[in-house]
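Researcher: Quick one. two chains, 442 residues in total.
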Amino acid sequence: MSGKPKLHYVNGRGRMESIRWLLAAAGVEFEEQFIETKEDLEKLLSDGLLLFQQVPMVEIDGMKMVQTRAILSYIAAKYNLYGKDLKERALIDMYVEGTTDLMGIIMYLPFQPPEAKEKNLALITDKATTRYFPVYEKVLKDQGQDYLVGNHFTWADVHLLEAILMVEEYKSDILSKFPLLQAFKGRISNIPTIKKFLQPGSQRKPPPDEKYIAQVKQIFNI
Amino acid sequence: MSVKAKLHYFNGRGRMETIRWLLAVAGVEFEEYFFETREELIKLQQSGVLLFQQVPLVEIDGMNMVQTRAILNYIAAKHNLYGKHLKERALIDMYVEATMDLNDLVMCHPMQPPEGREKNLALIVDKATNRYFPAYEKVLKDHGQDYLVGNQFSRADVQVPETILMMEEMKPDILAKFPLLQGFKARISNNPTIKKFLQPGSQRKSEIEEKMIPQVMKIF
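Model:
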């Protein structure tokens, strides 16, 4: 019984990746049990471990938590990454929901037909550069501070960095018109826990490849 | 009697309905500004109040709040509907996130092409009766209490009944196999603020009418 959180998911990003980022940013060590076959998933189901028959599932503090946002909110609150009062929390929630929407589009891309690839790339680029990144650039500009909310490091900063890096994998110069976000990216990447997570050998997962996509389709009957 | 919140949305349920429920239950008076055409939405977007160019928008406590979950979290926390501590909050979050998954399916249902409606309805009913409702029935059974979390009224006791009622509109006997949920629904419906919200003339919105769907889709 290590007492460390234990993550149940496939060996890839999907909906678990933001949870890995947040735990890592908080300096919390965690274990992972990967679902590799349909049988692995069926065992979790038949053992009654998945409240709504879905993953992610994170065993943490005696709970078997499911629902990505529930898990993230719990971790953020527990490790003081959720702001100091209700209004900071409201801002963090708004910002995180924005980056969730953006990363949500990207998450589904590998499962789209190949013909849609170019159109989808245009969609991500458009949304990132006209809807989402301008907002965070403005937040940073208006406040002139290092972090998005309350002049201290929060979940919003972790989530935005994750989103920036994810979009950059599709278009490496996506931040070309956002100087403050470029500086933000550099700053947050240098936070020791995050710097460690960004190094090879960490529990951060690579972008989905053909093999991963096939595995996910097979396990989840997509 | 001052209005404490202003809601901007179209005159229908969509993503704003759960917010209306929670405000009503919290006893927060609110005004609604409905837009009926795409032009009106564009005007709102151009005014700069929509952080991500999207609605719902709720003006509350000096903030222009967007993002449904951010708004719900704020209202729940402010009005003591979010449990007494972190672990209760965790349970509440798990339960309400699931209702939102089911609500999304219900919300998108009218936009299905006619050929796909029956199959989609079957899918929604299947998820409700095999995935979501059994989980809530078991929660009630295991602790034998009146409310879902921590033996006190929380947002979970608002959002789960809201979803139940929406499901009953699709299939009136959907709770047939869930006696505890039936009791729960009846109990919660008798809560004074909820009872009031369920009466005609309240700000609760009805199911979208078939003929309104093209208009709504044009707005967005």
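Strands of chain B lie at 5-9, 30-34, 57-60, 63-66.
Researcher: Thanks, that's what I needed.
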